[in-house]
Amino acid sequence: MSLPLRLGVNIDHVATIRNARGGEHPDPMRAAHVVEAAGGDGITVHLREDRRHIRDTDLDSIMREIRLPVNLEMAATEEMLEIALRYKPHAACIVPERREERTTEGGLDAAGQHNHLAPMVTRLSEAGIRVSLFIEPDARQIEAAIRLRAPVVEFHTGKYAHSEGAEQEAELRRITNAVALAAKNGIESHAGHGLTFENVQPIAAIPQIAELNIGHYLIGEAIFIGLEESVRKMRTLMDLAR
Ligand code: PXP
User: Fold this and answer.
1) Single pTM value for the model
2) For residue 36, what is the enclosing H or E element?
3) Would you say residue 92 lies in a domain?
4) Looking at the predicted structure, is the pLDDT value of residue 1 above 80?
């Protein structure tokens, strides 16, 4: 049986465009309201250490004004932990973060960083925040998530999105198997990174996936068809695949 599939819209790149000119336009808050009106199920923001897109003031406005659940993507640092505990978003997705990378390249090494992550997962969970770990679709990382008692994992779909043909099919199988292993162990699966109108459906069709988080492509498409239409079209494609 398929779970309902939620769409979390990552609005980071509205802030990227705003920051290119240093002013207030386009406003990520306005984007969050459009996502709400267009049938998005959640707002995702990544407050990066270098604040290259979303800023603390954006998070503050979003947490005060938006009714949709907020998913805060965060590096496993004391600074971000403190911010998450202060705002208590619905969810916090722990991601790897390197200052020089263009985007989140590759999943978190939950297995290698157990001792560093364990107290963070515990403190976030105790604050009522639903913790997810952004990992590769890999049994070793899922086993680490189980040991860390993370209720959710988000599978990195970057390799799937950036490959084609047999390689893409193999990656889709890897994700399908990983989702099944997570489900067997009572962990909810999310997925995201690099998803587009063209490649979303095979991922959306995996029955145990509960949420997709999609950003760059939706904001890029919004330039041509508007943000509301971009979100609606993605929602429709996801529903049709289910
Ligand atoms: N999920 C996570 C954990 C991410 O870090 C990102 C990228 O910020 C996304 C989903 C969305 O990826 P994209 O912007 O390529 O849709």
Assistant:
1) 0.96
2) helix 28-37
3) yes
4) no
